[in-house]
Design a protein that fits this description.
Low-confidence stretches: none
Radius of gyration: 15 Å
Helix content: 25-40%
CATH superfamily: Histidine kinase-like ATPase, C-terminal domain
Order of helices and strands: EEEHHEEHHEE
Bound molecules: adenosine-5'-triphosphate, magnesium ion
Strand content: 25-35%
CATH topology: Heat Shock Protein 90
Largest sheet: 5 strands, antiparallel
């Protein structure tokens, strides 16, 4: 799979086959989030997700990178094409070495926020995506992997 981006009058071709490690982005400021979401939308489009799902999945990516910026301060987002025996899909990984979560179950509950958010980010990522894995330890950081399959 080749990811072809046409932006600011330039054409950029990125090799995105399943064997590739994925696209890795450093995120720490809001414009990093915008960039990640932009690329995610293009990837999802080329993977064949319809517009509605593109927006939904891109919003899940945005929630994860926003949480990195807000709570972890800085970290990385990895976007990747994945496949199994009968379908292809999209995987987003979010990692940071920030403060971590003292209680993961609480963090996944709707309306729980230690910041001044609505506490809807993580529950919506879980709802939108097909698979969701989270690892977080106080003082060690947070790692989240979420996948969405085409079928
Ligand atoms: N990367 C992270 N590192 C540390 N804590 C996190 C991280 N991501 C989420 N959390 C914790 O989980 C809580 C819930 O996250 P969630 O994204 O659901 O809500 P929110 O960011 O507070 O608000 P919203 O996303 O609705 O704006 C956060 O308030 C925070 O305490
Ligand atoms: Mg959030």
């Amino acid at each position: 799979m080749k990811l072809i981006l046409k932006a600011i009058g330039k054409k950029m071709v990125i090799n995105m086959d399943e064997t590739s490690a994925g696209l890795v982005f450093d995120v720490s400021i809001p414009s990093d989030n915008a960039q990640v979401v932009f690329i995610a939308r293009h990837m999802l489009d080329q993977l064949g997700f319809d517009k509605t799902r593109q927006y939904l999945i891109a919003s899940a990516v945005s929630e994860l990178s926003t949480n990195i910026i807000r709570y972890g301060k800085k970290g990385i987002i990895i976007l990747k094409k994945i496949s199994n025996a009968n379908q292809t899909g999209f995987e987003v990984t979010a990692r940071d070495n920030g403060p971590g979560m003292p209680d993961i179950q609480k963090a996944l509950k709707e309306n729980y926020s230690t910041g001044n958010g609505l506490g809807l980010g993580l529950p919506s990522v879980r709802r939108i995506m097909d698979e969701f894995e989270i690892w977080s330890k106080p003082g060690q950081g947070t790692r989240i992997i979420a996948r969405k399959w085409m079928l």
